[in-house]
Amino acid sequence: MELVTNEMLTRYLEDDWVQRFVMSDHNSQHANLTCTRWLLDSAPKRCIFSQLYHDLEKQFSGRVLDVGGGLTAFTTRFGNSFDYELLDLMNHDDRASVDLVAAALPVGAIHRMDWKEFVPNGTYDVVIANDLFPNADQRLGEFLEKFLPITRELRISLTYYNNRICYKVKRVDADEFLFVRPWDGYRLGKELLPFEEQMIEPKFSLLERDAPSLFPNGRQVCLATIRGGGERG
């Protein structure tokens, strides 16, 4: 486990390869993708992306499932370089943009659905979940229970708040407003505890540190790698 800190960001910016790749990609179908713009607009997001995906850019040959990764300038690069699948609701871009990217990829590379409904076909070398748990999806434990048995390694960025932030939200299925408090580091640690033996260098105490945030809303991000039980034949 490792916190995303100013020191990590400074090291990454010595060679901002994610920005360099995105800026060099002149394909118009990628330029207006929401997640591509987010990468360009945020150095911390590029740093986190680099930590999770860095080796996929260098002659990677394994099988990868990217959960909630969104469409970026890297999607077609990965999809046409190795056995890559993107599993995402695709809520950030319109259907035409999604179809345009999908047309440039092998059949079956994009699954437009909730991960809970996804039926895996075989096992993976790497499963990645970036900027999804538990900030946008609090089903973290269920996710790990489902995917750890079918992958050798699971890489995940975990977003949480130690500043008692609260959101007023509206249910989409009812005329009701709720006040929702995102998970703090203590709550996140409790959810990860059953998977401690599979985690590489678990350090739950890091999650309760009040470290300076790299983001305007004060969120903290921790990166974790968890060993899975999947074996590729």
Mean pLDDT: 91
Helical stretch tally: 9
What share of residues is helical?
Answer: 25-40%
CATH topology category name = Rossmann fold
- The stretches of 5 or more residues where confidence is low (pLDDT under 50) are none
**Proportion of beta-strand residues:** 15-25%
CATH architecture: 3-Layer(aba) Sandwich
CATH class reads Alpha Beta
- Helices and strands, in N-to-C order? EHHHHHEHEHEEHEEEHE
Q: Sheet bearing the most strands, described?
A: 7 strands, mixed
Summarize the SSE layout with pairings.
Layout (H helix, E strand, L loop, with lengths): L1 E2 L2 H8 L3 H8 L3 H4 L2 H8 L1 H11 L9 E5 L7 H5 L3 E6 L6 H9 L6 E3 L11 E10 L6 H8 L3 E10 L6 E4 L6 E4 L4 H8 L27 E8 L6
Describe the structure.
The longest helix is centred in the N-terminal third of the chain and has 11 residues, at 43-53. This protein has a 7-stranded mixed sheet. A two-stranded antiparallel ribbon has the order 7-8. By secondary structure, the protein is α/β, with parallel strands linked by helices. The radius of gyration is 18 Å and the shape is globular. The chain has one domain (2-227): Vaccinia Virus protein VP39 (Rossmann fold), CATH 3.40.50.150. The chain has helices at 6-13, 17-24, 28-31, 34-41, 43-53, 75-79, 95-103, 140-147, 185-192, and strands at residues 2-3, 63-67, 83-88, 110-112, 124-133, 151-160, 167-170, 177-180, 220-227.
